[in-house]
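Need tokens for this chain, all 138 residues.
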Amino acid sequence: MLSSDQSWRNGRWARLAALALAIGAAGAVGAGCGGGSDNSSVSEAEKSVEKGIEEATQGIEKAKEEVKKGFKQAEKATKEGLEKGKNEAKKGIEGGKSQTQKAIEKAEKEAKEGIEKGKEEANRAIEEAEKRAESYGK
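Here are the structure tokens for all 138 residues:
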């Protein structure tokens, strides 16, 4: 979950809590505007305000829980991403080691073959030189 999604949700919960509080307050004002001064309308207004406050509080608590859940998910995703990156790096290093080892082995093989070929050519040259020396000596 992206942090922008999380902040949008936090803002949404805050707006809902404010709306619930406003509805409760409007209910209280509406109950008080009836022109009657009896205790029942005041009591109903108090109940409306208390209900609005309770709903707003519950909305805020829900929003807090959502934020905590979002942080936990982000932390988990970060840890998983780091672990995956670490594993990929290890694979790359192992692959690099393998390629390097193959290149070393190939170079050693080619060097040995070159040395053998050089020995063979040197022996031919020696034999040829000996033949020429014999032909001059006769």
